[in-house]
Specification:
By secondary structure, the chain is an alpha/beta fold. It has 13 helices and ten strands. It has three domains: 33 residues, no CATH class; 235 residues, Aspartate Aminotransferase, domain 2 (3-Layer(aba) Sandwich); 123 residues, Aspartate Aminotransferase, domain 1.
Length: 457
Amino acid sequence: MRYYDKLIFELSRPGRSAFSLPRPEKDIPACGNIWRESALDLPEVSEPDVVRHYTNLSQMNFGVDTGFYPLGSCTMKYNPKINEEIVSMFGGLHPLQPASTTQGVRDIYSFMDKALAEITGMKHFTFLPCAGAHGELTGLMLIREYHMSRGDSARTKIIVPDSAHGTNPASAAVCGLDVVVVKSRPDGLVDIEALKPLLGPDIAGIMLTNPNTLGLFEKDIKQIAELVHGCGGLLYYDGANMNPLMGVVRPGDMGFDVMHLNLHKTFSTPHGGGGPGSGPVGVCERLVPFLEKPRVSGFHGNFGVILRACAYILSLGRENVKLAGRLSTLAANYIKESLKDCFKLPIESVCKHEFVFDGLLEPNGVTTLDVAKRLLDYGFHAPTIYFPLLFHEALMIEPTETESLQTLDAFIEVMHKIAAEAAGDPELLKSAPHDTPISRPDETTAARQPILKYSKV
């Protein structure tokens, strides 16, 4: 172990300090039973030790700023640094400052409402939801409220494809709706004939991602919209896969009534680690009366996320928003066609921004997890693995529009190397990664018996 790989408590030495503060003029008074009986057990370290320790920790992790991140499902794209520069200008914004001094913030929200409406074909957006799943729940509640306002209380079911993101049925359940699963055809698209018998007066709507979780565009979307609307239901658009459609196709034009967007993903703002996020919900004109007011949560909402997304949209402009979607689609198809000679492609079709392999063509006992771990030795993060659940050894690859041809070629070369290693030396993959700070932790024990605090014992 290197010296600065130790825990910060292990670097501690009595009497060391990383700060120098004057003594308070008055002692802090005792506050009843909330006063500590013993000193807080904090590490005693110098400023250089603090800086080196946490800088070293950051370098032990993998991030989109340090390497290629072909993580599928929700677009882990590069975060332009101009976004961060612009957000830093608002560092002094205080949630309680007078409203007369925050007109600029309200102007940003007004612009984003119009910009997102133009991109998606919706009428208006609410910025209350703080994440994608929060947006899903909000959208489903709007659908329920719409039906209830017409005295149509029988609509208690929501249709969800078997290829959907896991948050879809979870959000529906939290909203009190019963989930009805519609099967996919062998080509990965919604089975229209399987959908028809599910439709009726008890259907509140259908939740769809288009392109779907397999990265395939639901080409029958107009027929699906007609069928669902025909039975009195509404269409919900899961915006997680909006990336390839930006500026090209609008959900509102497909017939969707309500949708959410992941601003903290599709529109380039940093995400991961639990937040912050933003999942604004857009609605068609007939649902506008059901939007809550105000349309921004307290204390300006997650304004930093909104502002970063605004900077991204303004930096690209109308034409380049469209180009971003097309480049992400081109990159995904390039990788797919370059690797299908050694990885199993369950559905032969042009994809959008992502696609799914079903493990190696000749696995030789090597699993998708082994491939993912071995990628770390070559300096690449793993794609999403074992999702969607339609394929046993699913490997979902999503390159995004920001990666160069050279980066894509390097990734393709490494994937071919890994396939060759699987054929010739499978144990090399089963024990990977070899060049990372840790290899294969016991993830099950870590999740079930987490160690959340330092102990000297």
